[in-house]
Queue: 2 jobs
Job 1
Amino acid sequence: MRLNRSEVMNIVKLKMEDYDRIWVISDIHGYHDLFLKLLNKIKLTAKDLLIINGDSCDRGPSSFEMYETIEKLIDGGLNIIHTFGNHEDLMVNAIEDGELFAWYRNGGRQTVDSYKKKYEILSKHLKYIKNMPMAVDLGKYFVVHAGINPQKTIEEQTSYEMTWIRGDFIDHPLLKTDKIIVYGHTPNLDGKIHFVDDQKISIDCGSYNTGVVGAIELKSMEIIYENTHRLNIYLNQHFKKR
Ligand SMILES: [Mn+2]
């Protein structure tokens, strides 16, 4: 929760016109099968950009496979940027500083299990994770894991705010920026991407609860979803009975 490492402070600035399509996926949480299914639908080319907006690890079964696949796709020449999520923060703090309690309480056990003692690969992934940027500034859109502090300009945001903020951002309709914030972190328990207001696109489809991961393309606003059978189970338990 401390998150004061200077290497994760950076915001990557990119131009939308440099890419054919800009897809954003968030909060995959170890559901590597859903990630592969989405990639299969998207059919990413070297002219596209894919932003994976934090929280690829924890809760779901295949965190190791997530980072391994992402590194291979990048090595293969695809433009993929993974922003730093609060679960990447929990993971780094647990492994480097021994803060295991917070991590295990939030699904870190599944991440440890997925590595199955492959410690060399874990330290390679950790190097990648620690160098993830905090956000991607696309001009019109600002892609960030948790959101921004509405009382501050983009330049004044801290890494902690961009990784962990929740209610103070979501419940605040007025921002000190004209940009449209594309964010995850706070799950939509109906398993859908939400256009919350003129400046907020909420894309965490709650993979762990709903079984859904969504993706949005920022030029066309095309939205696609992949889900497991868990969505139906979840909806039956939480919505249909009432
Ligand atoms: Mn998350």
Job 2
Amino acid sequence: MKNKKAFPDREAGRILSSLRRDSRVKKMKSFTQHGTVSTFDHCRAVTKLSLGIDRRLHLHSDKKVLITGAMLHDYFLYDWHDKARPGQKIHGYTHAAAAAKNARSHFGIDKRTHHVIHSHMWPLNITRVPRSREAWIVCAADKIVSIRETVMTRRKK
Ligand SMILES: [Fe+2]
Ligand SMILES: [Fe+2]
């Protein structure tokens, strides 16, 4: 099975597929993250890599916190490339808080999941240091996926 390694147990698959099917989460398909990659696909890639890191390093994370935090880490729901949008220039500094706020109000996420989303832009958001294994994993996975997507976009040009 293709996704067996990335989704190590049934619970992880169930949590992820219910998030991926949610119409509010699907809204991220209409926003571009890097190059031709949508925010939805970016979040999906970060989730897949987060689960892979957790499995490879035997970190035994809380799968619900890890998957929900990873899938919603960029749930800010706007086009960050839109130069006319107020605050566009400081998107890098502000979007983690916006995503955490949206995730809390739309999905009622718990404190630990909120922390994963809120701290994922460390060290850019220097004071928001990841303080859980799930937060560290998503923070690292996001950097790796973002670099990969940016490099891929440059190669296509
Ligand atoms: Fe982000
Ligand atoms: Fe991201």
